Amino acid sequence: MCCSGECRPLGWLLGLPFAFLSLLVSLVGVIVWIVGLLLSCICPCCLCVTILVEVAIELIKAPLHVMEWFTSQIPC
């Protein structure tokens, strides 16, 4: 029997501890993002700082990616 919709509470509950860990990683991403923005204001020609800021943005989005992955892996 299949669920009607995208509601998967079991996947959400199992993914919660991992989402908490990725939330801590996203806090590190926020710090890296702020430092990267400051460095890019000082030296805008530096390409590695731009890449660092892009990686930081992906770290900030990590909790959402983790929860989406877990809810997609667990059937209803």
Automatic annotation (TrEMBL):
Protein keywords: Membrane, Transmembrane, Transmembrane helix
InterPro entries (UniProt xref): TAXIMIN_1/2
Annotated transmembrane regions: 12-39
PANTHER family given in the database record: SIGNALING PEPTIDE TAXIMIN 1 (PTHR33834:SF2), SIGNALING PEPTIDE TAXIMIN 2 (PTHR33834)
Protein name: Uncharacterized protein LOC109716128
Organism: Ananas comosus
